[in-house]
Amino acid sequence: MQRLRLKFGRGNGLKYVSHLNVLHAWERSFRRADLPLAYSQGFTPHPQISVAAPLAIGMTSEAELMDVRLTGWLPPQSVTMKLRTQIADGFQLYNTRIVGLSIPSLQSLVTFAEYSVKLRSQYKQPEVENAIHALLQKREVQWHHSRGEKTHYYDLRTLIDDIWIECCEKTDYTLGMRLCCGGTGSGRPEQVITALGFTGYPQSIHRKKLILQ
Fold first, then answer.
1. Does residue 44 register a pLDDT over 90?
2. Structural domains in the chain, sorted by start
3. In this structure, are residues 14 and 22 in contact, taking their beta carbons and an 8 Å threshold?
4. Its pTM surpasses 0.70
5. What is the pLDDT of residues 162-172, one digit of tens each?
6. Quick check: 167 and 173 in contact, CB under 8 A?
7. What is the C-alpha to C-alpha distance for residues 94 and 101, in angstroms, rounded to an integer?
């Protein structure tokens, strides 16, 4: 048995593809590459593939992490080369490395995610800087979102680690964000944008990094 960790990206062509369909696409890629996937036990065996933190619909990424178990041992470089010839359009596979079989699950290790968020605003740069400073100085930001008939209430401020301006060109801004991502809750960049006082949905949201324990 071998456990491998893959780092991959998802471009614009895949930003509206669901997490489940992403997993199915990778499973097909492993099969086409003739890699010996390990399967779970039971009546409905599933390939032992797990993603660190599912990417929300509408986002792109250069920082996705996925663990996969194989029944036999293969050099990581060989796995990378085989998969690159088989992965679907829109995926980029950056590297593959070996991780220990006994270390905690990938999902349990994720603590933060960093994003680049592009938006357009009539606010001047000093006003944006003041809005960021004011939000970071707050002790709590009561928030809620609804899903179906259920409404979830929480403190958005606890999910924000840092915010900064990456780029400013007239009315076009790129904001960097480091948000919590794990069992205690995950920050959503579009909610942070609203909390800063911007209107409308961001032009794009790109995940740049996943930070593990």
1. no
2. 2-103 (3.30.70.580), 109-212 (3.30.70.3190)
3. yes
4. yes
5. 999 999 998 89
6. yes
7. 22
